[in-house]
UniProtKB/TrEMBL annotation:
Entry protein name: Glycosyl hydrolase family 32 N-terminal domain-containing protein
Family: Belongs to the glycosyl hydrolase 32 family.
Domain Glycosyl hydrolase family 32 N-terminal as annotated: residue spans: 92-285
Keyword Hydrolase included in the entry's annotation: yes
Amino acid sequence: FVFFELSPQIEGNAFLEWFNGDTWVSYIYVYEPESVLELGIRPAFVANAARNPEVPEGYHFRPPTDSLIGRIPMEFQKMVTTINGIHPNELAKTIIPEGPSKLNLTQDFRDPNVILGPDGKWKMILGSRDSQGGVILLYGTDDPTAQSGWHFLNVLYRDNRLGMTVAECSGLAPIDGNPQDPNTLWALIYAQLNSTDPATGRRDITTVHVGKFDGITFTPMFEQEMDFGTHAYAFQALYSQELGTLTIAWLANWKDWNWDTKPDFPTSMTLPRKLVLSADRKVLLMNEKIFKN
């Protein structure tokens, strides 16, 4: 596919046409910069040859636009730079074409979480699995722009408890100070995919390990369950000196999902949190007064 962007700079209705003899258009998407965060990017035209099959309850992106069929490897890492957080500078490019070859991992190699490490270099945490259970991988780069030079550094953590498979949506965040401070403690958070809690029967438990991170190795000090919510997808965290560490995850346990709850499925369980350590640095506390309407 060839990507073109057109900014007509007009008000009111617009009419766009092309000549099929020398131009073949697959998709046209539209958005307004001032409202894209609220209204999103919307499909305005899809050619008949590129239309999705008539599948009830189907998602918008399927072959030929976003297929998992035929990818070798199935999962790899790409990035795109933007002008203003919305406009891409260029098409996305592959920065890590495949996972580490000598660890006998499955094709699971996903959910990149990029942070600035204690050594001032960019790190990427990725979830995978082997024959025993979940594996969390650490990658790094010396490139201050994070656009090149990504390479495998270490297996950050392994977990095979409760019948889990992939360490899903893993993330690492500083929780009680500047990430450049060697005394700062870090939280390693992930969902234990396919796990089952024997006490409650809940599936896909979300756990957090608190410990020290030197840029290469994570040394856990204690662990606790991340509240009662399970399966924290798309985990993101942001640290600032003023606010501390804020986190958000889309909590949606697919094992408990049913059609009756589907209308509220995408957003009803999105959960913001602030990570706060106890005075003795031995437990994470729940802070209920952080987020206001």
